[in-house]
Amino acid sequence: MSTDTCVTQPASTPGFISVEALTKRYRPDMPPVFENVSFTIGQGEFVCIIGHSGCGKSTILNVLAGLEEATSGHVIMANREISGPSLDRGVVFQGHALMPWLTVQANIAFAVRSRHPKWTREQIGAHIQRFVDMVGLNGSEKKKPSELSGGMRQRVGIARAFAVEPKMLLLDEPFGALDALTRGVIQDELLKIVSATRQTVFMITHDVDEAILLSNKIMLMSNGPRARIAEIVVNTLPADRQRETMHHDPQYYRIRNHLVDFLVRRSRETDRDLESSATPRLVRPGLDDGDGDGEGEGAAVVRNAIPIIKAVA
Amino acid sequence: MNGPRRITARISIRQKAALCSIALLAVLLIVWQAATCTSGPDASVKSPDDAEAVEYAMLMGKIPETGAASQSSSKVTGFPTPAQFAAEASRQLAHPFRDNGPNDKGFAIQLGYSLARVAAGYVIALAVAVPLGFLIGMSRLAFLTFNPFIQVLKPISPLAWMPIALYTIKSSSTSAIFVIFICSVWPMLINTVFGVAAVRRDWLNVARTLEVTPLRRALRVILPAAAPTIVTGMRISMGIAWLVIVAAEMLVGGTGIGYFLWNEWNNLSLANVLFSVLLIGLVGMALDLLFAQLQRKVTYVD
Fold first, then answer.
1. Helix (H, G, I), strand (E, B) or coil at A55
2. Looking at the complex, does the CB of residue A169 fall below 8 Å from at least one CB of chain B?
3. What average pLDDT does the segment B85-94 reach?
4. Which of the four pLDDT bands, split at 50, 70 and 90, describes residue A313?
5. Can you give the residue ranges of every domain in chain B?
6. Residue A54's closest CA among A209, A280, A222?
């Protein structure tokens, strides 16, 4: 079943990325922004992180990207500790971060040439075209970012990150500045691309629906300072879910209510409750009060999930 | 409807401005004509009353004579009327490349000397300022190390360097180049530092995640990002260099448009002084337009 693939994967390849006891303190006389954050991401998993502003989501992403250093703790990817940025971890920045003096093509070419410095012009051109087509930007290759709409710019950013073919993709609120309609279209595209490439993704978002649509696991962060990963919600919706029909699934509202509930109420309380436990608990709100079939799936998932927790701890 | 009307409005305002400029020029010419026609420089000495006045006039370099002699001398020494100026200017424009010894060279040759000096000093300044600016802009240590020197050296008038340059370099021509170098280096250096330091973090982070080598990052990310600021500094520098070269050539003499101007002042040929002043203005404008063009080329819309 689809839910199996979501969760059993990390068990089969435990900790493609594993984050261990990460703490970030900006000033020694202030409490840390987040403390003792540990989690794992399996290969091919799409993980979203949700939390209020200031809880350190972007900092965690930057540490994963290697752009920032944690005060303590480790990030291990494919059995190697991360130190500094790498072509293996592509980042899509919040503000698209395209070079405004380069065309769409040249922006992507800059990335491709960094990955494959020995490639010929033709090879690079063909490679770029593939990713331009993928995000649906044919015809705009020769335009400068200033001539594109916000949604198109963000697509170029995504194409640039994908064109490097990183082992892991980090998305920092990539659709935050877009209108709802454009956002929906690009979400669909991202979903399509990710399911086709089986890309491992770590994404920050403020949009609960976006998280439910795109991700296999949703990490909920409590409020800072001393923010923690309070819970990891397993998305038990079928993998072939679609934006148009997703809300007809009874699980959808259970998951959604659980997430919203956390954001409005429990994100403040949990930081005290969690003081003792080092690892976040895994929950499946989609399967609560479900029918027999759902229950059975849930049980299978729980059994499979246990090794993950052990691996983290 | 709105679009075309706005365009016609813009064209008409351009035309209006052109007409106003022409009117202003006409007014200036009329004032010039009126001021030079009524009061000739030798009007006061036309009828000398006593020997004292004659002697005074002779001491001032004017021969108190009547008739043709006085008329001809006023043509050479007095402030020219627009017509006299036009005649003198056309005489100059007719022979731009003449070379009859050090005191009688065509204006084009003199301009060539000045431009060559400016170009030499300016290119050396560019070659020093941009790499140094990159270093200072990228490294906090370099910034703090160089900053006190820049702050002290920047406000020094470029001509104040002249005696030191003349003593150490010995050659007057090279000293002029040095003065151009020292005056044009600061705006370029400071603008490069600011341009490089202000490159958006996102772009540098993109380069970092792509594992771009430092040289490629400098040339492909930082340079184009900072280019508008750098070119602005280059434009300011060129303006200053063109101001300074005239003064420097007046001091060192020999060749150049500044020397030409001073030489014509010594000849008391105000028509030629006026001619070279206008020339300096026009060349300065042309240089500025050149850099405006360059600036348009490197500017990007964010």
1. coil
2. no
3. 90
4. very low
5. 107-298
6. A222
Q: Which of A65, A95, A114 sits opposite B212 (nearest CB)?
A: A114
- Please give the pLDDT value at position A55: 85
A/B interface, count of CB pairs below 8 Å: 59
pLDDT value at A12 more than 80: no
CB of A111 less than 8 A from some CB of B: yes
Could you count the other beta carbons within 10 Å of the beta carbon of residue A40?
23
Q: State whether residue A115 sits within 8 Å of chain B by CB.
A: yes
How far off is chain B from A63, nearest CA to CA, in Å?
A: 12
Name which of B200, B210, B215, B231 to mutate to probe chain A: the one with the most chain A Cβ atoms within 10 A of its Cβ. B210
Q: Which of A149-158, A297-306, B42-51, B144-153 has the lowest mean pLDDT?
A: A297-306
> Per the CB < 8 Å rule, is A101 touching B225?
yes
Q: Do B224 and A101 touch (CB under 8 A)?
A: yes
Q: Which of B33-37, B43-47, B129-133 has the lowest mean pLDDT?
A: B43-47
Cβ-defined contacts of B134-143 (< 8 Å, 24+): B134/B192, B134/B196, B134/B218, B134/B222, B136/B189, B136/B192, B136/B193, B136/B196, B137/B192, B137/B193, B137/B194, B137/B195, B137/B196, B137/B197, B137/B226, B138/B196, B138/B197, B138/B222, B143/B193, B143/B197
Q: Residue A86's closest chain B neighbor by CA?
A: B209
Contact B209 A110 (CB under 8 A): no
pLDDT digits (tens, 9 = 90+) for B155-195: 999 999 999 999 999 888 899 999 999 999 999 999 999 99
Contact B202 A86 (CB under 8 A): no
Instruction: Determine whether the interchain pair B300/A100 forms a contact, defined as Cβ–Cβ distance below 8 Å.
Output: yes
Q: Is the ipTM of this complex over 0.85?
A: no
- Taking an 8 Å cut-off on Cβ atoms, the answer to whether B205 and A95 are in contact is no
Instruction: Provide the CATH topology of domain B107-298.
Output: MetI-like fold (1.10.3720)
In order of A64, A99, A147, B183, B277, the CA distances from B161 in angstroms are 55, 42, 49, 10, 25
Q: Is A104 on the interface with B (CB under 8 A)?
A: no
Using CA coordinates, name the residue in chain B closest to A66.
Answer: B209
Contact A57, A270 (CB under 8 A): no
Whether residue A17 contacts residue A168, with contact meaning beta carbons closer than 8 Å, is answered with yes
